[in-house]
Each structure stands twice: as structure tokens, then as C-alpha cells.
Automatic annotation (TrEMBL):
Organism: Nocardioides humi
The protein's name: Cupin type-2 domain-containing protein
Keywords, alphabetical: Metal-binding
Pfam families recorded: Cupin_2
Highest taxon in the source lineage: Bacteria
């Protein structure tokens, strides 16, 4: 674990299209590579119109999503939830979930995952 504050500028990171994502991009800011010893990861995601990810779950990781801009839908267990700025989603381990941009502008959100998925 780092014993100093780490400052990261999102402008220094490129957009990646993770596996199981369709027209859905993330900037992985806090990972074990960018912050050695980090016990979580933090990313900003941008889903252009019709961007989405496939339904999936994480064995032991919890996730928090915070919607910054745009609109979309989150699906879990056959239930749909409307997404808009200010909405926070909490996804426990082993819960299937998917997100899709159903609006007419980019859906932008932040994600914190309790166990690093990258790095």
C-alpha cells in the first residue's frame, strides 16, 4: 500500500473497451498498477448512445455506481431501474447486473469496486 497521497489526472488515461462491453468505455484510474497495494479500483465509464455491458456478476467484489450525466437502464434479476444524474447503485457480490445507455447522449458514471478487477 502506498504511504503517500497519489494524484491522478483522468486526462492522462485512455478509454478502454472492457470484455463483455459493447460501445462502452472506461478509464481505469485507481488500479494496483496506478496505486500499488490499492484494495479497490475506481474508474469513470462512458457509454455512448446504445452502449451497454452484458449481464454479469462478481464472485466476491461489491460495486458502487454513481451516475454523473445521461440516462440509461440498470437491470438486475429481471428488474429494470432508470438511471439519471445523482442515482447511486450498490451491487453486492454474486448479483447479476447490466447497464445500458437508453438516452440520446453519453451515459457517464463512476464505479468503485472493492477488489481490483484490473492490474
Amino acid at each position: 500500500m502506498s504511504d503517500e497521497m497519489v494524484v491522478l489526472d483522468a486526462a492522462d488515461f485512455g478509454w478502454d473497451e472492457p470484455e463483455m462491453h459493447v460501445r462502452a468505455y472506461s478509464k481505469c484510474l485507481v488500479t494496483r498498477e496506478t496505486v500499488p497495494g490499492a484494495s479497490f479500483d475506481f474508474r469513470i465509464s462512458r457509454y455512448p448512445v446504445s452502449g451497454r455491458n452484458e449481464s454479469h456478476s462478481h464472485e466476491s467484489a461489491e460495486q458502487l455506481f454513481y451516475i454523473i450525466s445521461g440516462t440509461g437502464t440498470a437491470r438486475s434479476g429481471g428488474v429494470r431501474h432508470r438511471l439519471s444524474p445523482g442515482i447511486t447503485l450498490y451491487v453486492p457480490p454474486r448479483v447479476d447486473h447490466a447497464i445500458e445507455n437508453t438516452g440520446d447522449e453519453d451515459l457517464v458514471f463512476a464505479i468503485v469496486t472493492t477488489e481490483p478487477l484490473v492490474g
